[in-house]
Amino acid sequence: MKGYFISKYRDLERFERSLVGFPLNISEAIISSDVLEVRTEDVVYNFLCKSAKAKYSQSQRYVRRAVVSQLASHLWFCYMNVETL
């Protein structure tokens, strides 16, 4: 099932709005895929932040930070813009 999502939604920028509502395990499978198509790694980071923000309220900001930190292990920081870092 995850393979379907990875192949269909590998263009993260194109499908970002619909992907934000997906469960985190699906989001993690997509961002950890080797076939992900993005201009820069900043797109992936921003997607992670938006997904966590959509799933967890402001009162759960510590959970939100923990989720982003955990999923950040899939980011390629060397391909991010300095401004984002």
UniProtKB/TrEMBL annotation:
This is Uncharacterized protein. It comes from Helianthus annuus.
